[in-house]
Amino acid sequence: KNFLINHSFDFDLIIMMGFTFDEKVITKVKEKKRGAKVVLLQCGNQFVENMTYSLFDLKLKISPLERLNKIDQIWLLPHYKKNIPYMKTFFKTDNVISVPYIWDSFFIDLQTRENSNIQYKNKFYSLNNKSISILEPNLNSSKNCVLPLFIAESFEQKFPNILQSCNVFCGSHLVKNDYFIKTILNMDIYKKRKDFLKIHSRLSFLEIIKNHGSIIVSHQQDNALNYLYLEALYLNLPLLHNSNFLKEYGYYYPDNDIEIARDKIYLILNQHSENIDNYIEKNKKILDQYSSKNNLNQNNYSKIIRGLFR
User: Fold this and answer.
1) What phi and psi, each to the nearest 5 degrees, are found at residue 149?
2) Given its phi and psi angles, is residue 132 left (phi above 0), alpha (psi -120 to 50 degrees) or beta?
3) Residue 121: pLDDT over 80
4) In what order do the strands lie in the sheet with 37-42?
5) Contact 230/116 with Cβ under 8 angstroms?
6) Helices (H) and strands (E) in the chain — how many of each?
7) CB 239 within 8 A of CB 251
8) CB-CB contact of 205 with 229 (8 Å)
9) Contact, 218 vs 171, CB < 8 A?
10) Under 8 Å between Cβ of 103 and 292
11) Would you say residue 2 has pLDDT above 80?
12) pTM
């Protein structure tokens, strides 16, 4: 905060992403640089977070975001667009808009370079290609492992002993949940398959693919754009998902339809490798659509930012 206040003359625009400064800091920033603009970019589903923290005792010292009178605009990502009326009410401002979703391969490329695997980028789909990885954060109803686990359960019931393992990540806290454990104890993927279901802590994406499973099984509610999806497609991994923003890419199942998802796993196991060239070529389109280098995205952000300074 002190750095920002002392050096704020260097900034015309400050975008708060994943955090907020308090009102006093924003006031001092604007006093030091006349005309400076401060924007809050909401990268999470604020409605779901407020609902979760309000209804459940998560033993986390988290307070709701306060209204920031000095803030100039609130930006929401396109998959949260339907939350705009809620956000206007929550923050007591009409200045809430949707902005383009952007992604860049920089971080996943950095991981591949650090692991000396850049030359194998198009081959990651062949690693542990009979094992499932579930990478949801498991913090609330928005993105968690429950439906993916039942997709694996449904597959095991119809096609037993084909998959080699099912791996749940970001799951260390789940094993302390009595309800979760009792749910698992009733599932065939636990009762009938020794050492098949494995619960892990958070690991890096490439470590998961290399050591555990390259079939990415995902589920979301009102969080239809996710960097995980684009990184999986970038690495040409079979991505099983229910994002209506990406219906034409990866392996899509609608809403909570476990049976369609189950049959897509069968398709992945039998056709993904054979169809990989088409998969790679098709993925280029969606990766370009959300790329930070896409001229349309750059122009849209330029227009939004220019509008702030009018």
Assistant:
1) -65, -40
2) beta
3) no
4) 13-17, 37-42, 73-76, 96-98
5) no
6) 13, 10
7) yes
8) no
9) no
10) yes
11) no
12) 0.91
